[in-house]
């Protein structure tokens, strides 16, 4: 993984955004649930 890609992953979850994407399964969701609704990855 290049540094550019790593930075992209780290900014995937934006607490100020209503739209987020799970960094593990890339499923989009609104807001920031405690766990990804798709794969269950802990987001908080
Ligand atoms: Zn997920």
UniProtKB/TrEMBL annotation:
Source species, domain of life: Bacteria
Protein name (database record): Uncharacterized protein
Organism listed in the record: Engelhardtia mirabilis
């Amino acid at each position: 993984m290049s540094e550019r890609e790593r930075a992209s992953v780290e900014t995937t979850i934006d607490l100020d955004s209503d739209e987020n994407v799970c960094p593990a399964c890339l499923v989009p969701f609104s807001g920031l649930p405690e766990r990804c609704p798709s794969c269950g990855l802990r987001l908080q």
